[in-house]
Design goal:
This protein has 105 residues and is mainly alpha-helical. The protein has a domain of 65 residues. 53% of the residues lie in helices and 6% in strands. It has a two-stranded antiparallel sheet with strand order 1-2. Helix 1 runs antiparallel to helix 2. The protein starts with 18 loop residues before the first helix and ends in a 13-residue tail after the last helix.
C-alpha cells in the first residue's frame, strides 16, 4: 500500500533547460508582430492607398488614419518595445533554468 501523502501528484521533471531560448523566441515574435505588422505594414498600406481606398482582403484601407489605424499603430509600437524588453532579458539573464532568489533548491 502506498501512502498518497508521500507521492507527488506529478512526477518531477528533469533539471535543465534554459528560459533564455523562450525569451528570445517570444521577443523576436513580439518585435516582428509589433513593428513589422503593427507599424511598418500599417503605415505602408495607408501610404499606398489612393483616395478611393485600397481593398485588402475584407478591409478597405484609406490614406487617412482613423481611430482603428492609430490604435493598431500604438499597440504595434508598444508590442515592439515589449519584444525588445524580452530580448534584453534573454541577454542579461544567467544561463540555465530559472532560479528564484532566496528559494532553497
Amino acid at each position: 500500500m502506498t501512502d498518497l501523502q508521500e507521492t507527488p501528484a506529478v512526477e518531477p521533471e528533469d533539471e535543465g533547460g534554459d528560459e533564455r531560448a523562450g525569451f528570445q523566441i517570444a521577443g523576436g515574435l513580439f518585435l516582428f508582430l509589433g513593428w513589422g505588422l503593427g507599424v511598418f505594414l500599417n503605415v505602408l498600406l495607408h501610404a499606398s492607398a489612393h483616395a478611393g481606398g485600397r481593398v485588402v482582403g475584407l478591409w478597405r484601407i484609406y490614406p487617412s488614419y482613423g481611430p482603428y489605424a492609430w490604435a493598431f499603430l500604438i499597440m504595434g509600437v508598444l508590442t515592439g518595445f515589449f519584444g525588445i524588453a524580452l530580448l534584453w532579458m534573454a541577454r542579461e539573464s544567467a544561463p540555465g533554468p530559472i532560479r528564484i532568489p532566496g528559494f532553497p533548491y
